[in-house]
Design goal:
Layout: E1 2-6, E2 9-11, E3 17-24, E4 32-38, E5 44-50, E6 57-59, E7 67-72, E8 77-82, E9 91-99, E10 102-105, E11 109-113
Parallel strand pairs: 2-11
Antiparallel strand pairs: 1-3, 3-8, 4-5, 4-9, 5-6, 7-8, 9-10, 9-11
């Protein structure tokens, strides 16, 4: 089982990034997908969720209207489009696959928002 995030980096406030998570080793279409983030000294919090078929999504209030989650079950990938970035969005972003009591995590990708 592998989840590999990519797309993080350093971006100025107001900028955008497109994070990608590539999955392998399990039946991706059977798993809900979540994006979490963890800032230094803080807990890891969920920011976006997609149901297994992609028909249902959820966003944390702090990112609603700026972040968008999208999945492609044919390509075993999930995307997090993040717009209008703020310094407080600086964190390591993780993708997570969840099905019942099973969960798989990626290693994370760093997003730094700074001028």
């Amino acid at each position: 089982v592998q989840l590999e995030e990519s797309g993080g980096g350093l971006v100025q406030p107001g900028g955008s990034l497109r994070l990608s998570c590539a999955a392998s080793g399990f039946t991706f279409s059977s798993y809900a997908m979540r994006w979490y983030r963890q800032a230094p000294g803080k807990e890891r919090d969920v920011v976006a969720y997609s149901s297994s078929a992609g028909g249902s999504t959820f966003y944390a209030d702090s990112v609603k209207g700026r972040f968008a989650i999208d999945r492609d079950n044919a390509k075993n990938t999930v995307i997090l489009q993040i717009n209008s970035l703020k310094p407080e969005d600086t964190a390591v972003y993780y993708c997570c696959a969840v099905s019942g009591n099973l969960s798989y995590w990626g290693q994370g990708t760093q997003v730094t928002v700074s001028s």
